[in-house]
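Below is one such record:
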Amino acid sequence: MELHPYLRVNPPQETSERFPQWTHDETVEFLAIRAQLDKSFVETKRNKPLWQAISSLLQQRGFFRTPDQCKSKWKNLVTRFKGSESVEGEINRQFPFYEEMRKIFSDRMERLLVLEKARGKQVQVHAKEWEEEEGEGKVAGSKKRRKVERKKRTEEEVEGAVRDFMRRQLEMEARWAEAVEARDTERRAKEEQWRRVMQGLQEERTDLERRWREREEERRVREEARAERRHALLIALLDKLVHRDC
């Protein structure tokens, strides 16, 4: 594989070193790996090892990114994808990875639907088994009541799983929103700090220019005073010479 000029031969050793921006090819590889591991991300709550795995797989393909960089990149892509989803028409095509992101989330929902269908079939099988296990001496009303209760419990389990999935999704979205808001707040704070520093420098420069003009004005006044004194002295000497000659 021919490496992009942005890529390094060896991964950076210092955490403070500036990393290059993500290239298009690098992002495509990242999304392909993230799509393969999406099922694991949904099923587990501790996803730090998964980000480490993505970082390792990217490194094998010639792209050196830390787990934190991968996680931050994913959050950024999700935010941009949701922004493109909220508009109509062909504006979302301005997001170059729209199709890749849409496929990841579509596959996720398909897996959830398949899981629900599988659990529904399992409920039907269990219901049939429960019917066969019912003895002929049992009352028909009791059999029906037990079937309804068991079916209800199974449906509640499915609903609980769906609610848990949606809760995790909402928590993830909330964390993404908080991260975006935190970055915006930090950016605004840095911009305000920079503005204050520049304002202070401008005021300091203005003060220096004012003091320089004041010193120049004082020097000019002194020079004029000395010139007037010299002129007066010369006039006095000339007067003495004229009177002496007379």
Q: What stands out?
A: DSSP finds six helices and no strands in the chain. Confidence is low (pLDDT under 50) at residues 1-17, 133-137. The helical segments are 24-36, 38-43, 48-60, 67-85, 98-133, 140-245.
